[in-house]
């Protein structure tokens, strides 16, 4: 499926693509929702590639060039640059074995904005993916590893022992570091510039990724830690039930700044609500608001705080102070 999507993406990116080619690709996408998801990921590859930093871009370009040198034949000759790289990487099954930077373009599990999904892994562990999340799972003789590329995930870990009757560690890794547990529940959130780990049950050890590897901290229920730019920082404690409420479809707030709650709600909305951050700086909110109906959640936040909800000229919703 990935190879087929890569071929379609490469073919449609050329000047030779006809309307019949576009129609055939669309028909293929309609055959299975996974086809369209794979196609969307392929089309997004070039955009994501452009946002990588200079070193990551150089590594990917070098890998693509090395992989492409011996495969420029037949149909592939019509495709150039990054599109050809997509084809040969997908066809060789080589992509999945590479760095997090490359693998992030083709996650095993992914959700769209406003969507949540729970999956049961082969070891019996359950992962709940929050809105706009992407990850994959790998199992070896001595460990179980979830690679979280973006978004938020709640892991409920099943106990498992290896061949020598030793516990199999369960690890969630990001570009910032790792969170390791033996039978527990915890949340890992990967934002653009940081990773935050929150423990719901039992204990978790968080460790920074190289070059700061070796710097670790042990967390208990309610503990949180942030990993960013080679620094590990303990954050304020939270109620574990509140921290995991999103996995049950609720946006829970316990005397939190309303701007922070609106930011979180916007992660689930197709069209984010607008607000003046400075004008709402003194407002706080408590309550539980349904993520399955973000308009109703927004109304509840506005009602709880005494704020006003209006519409801009373009139809966008705006939260502001009452006049």
From TrEMBL:
It comes from Novosphingobium guangzhouense. The chain crosses the membrane at residues 79-97. This is Iron dicitrate transport regulator FecR. One of its GO terms (molecular function) is sigma factor antagonist activity. Residues 109-205 form the FecR protein domain. Residues 3-43 form the FecR N-terminal domain. Keywords: Membrane, Transmembrane, Transmembrane helix. PANTHER family: PERIPLASMIC SIGNAL SENSOR AND SIGMA FACTOR ACTIVATOR FECR-RELATED, PROTEIN FECR.
């Amino acid at each position: 499926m990935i190879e087929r999507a890569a071929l379609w993406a490469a073919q449609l990116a050329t000047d030779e693509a006809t309307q019949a080619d576009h129609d055939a690709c669309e028909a293929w996408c309609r055959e299975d929702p996974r086809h369209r998801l794979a196609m969307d990921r392929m089309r997004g590859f070039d955009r994501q590639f452009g946002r990588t930093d200079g070193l990551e871009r150089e590594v990917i370009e070098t890998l693509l060039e090395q992989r492409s040198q011996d495969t420029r034949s037949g149909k592939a000759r019509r495709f150039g640059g990054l599109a050809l790289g997509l084809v040969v990487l997908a066809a060789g099954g080589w992509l999945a074995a590479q760095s997090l930077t490359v693998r992030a373009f083709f996650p095993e599990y992914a959700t769209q904005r406003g969507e949540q999904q729970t999956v049961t892994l082969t070891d019996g562990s359950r992962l709940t993916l929050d809105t706009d999340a992407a990850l994959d799972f790998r199992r070896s003789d001595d460990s179980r590893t979830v690679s979280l590329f973006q978004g938020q995930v709640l892991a409920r870990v099943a106990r498992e022992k290896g061949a020598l009757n030793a516990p199999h560690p369960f690890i969630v890794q990001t570009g910032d570091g790792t969170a390791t547990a033996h039978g527990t529940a915890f949340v890992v959130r990967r934002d653009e510039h940081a990773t935050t780990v929150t423990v719901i049950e039992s204990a978790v050890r968080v460790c920074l990724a190289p070059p700061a590897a070796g710097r670790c901290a042990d967390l208990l229920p309610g503990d949180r830690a942030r990993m960013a730019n080679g620094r590990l920082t303990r954050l304020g404690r939270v109620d574990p039930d509140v921290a995991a409420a999103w996995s049950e479809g609720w946006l829970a707030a316990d005397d939190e700044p309303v701007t922070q709650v609106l930011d979180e709600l916007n992660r689930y909305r197709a069209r984010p609500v607008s607000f003046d951050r400075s004008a709402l700086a003194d407002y706080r909110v408590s309550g539980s608001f349904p993520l399955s109906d973000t308009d109703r959640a927004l109304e509840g936040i506005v009602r709880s705080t005494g704020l006003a909800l209006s519409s801009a000229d373009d139809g966008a919703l705006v939260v502001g102070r009452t006049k």
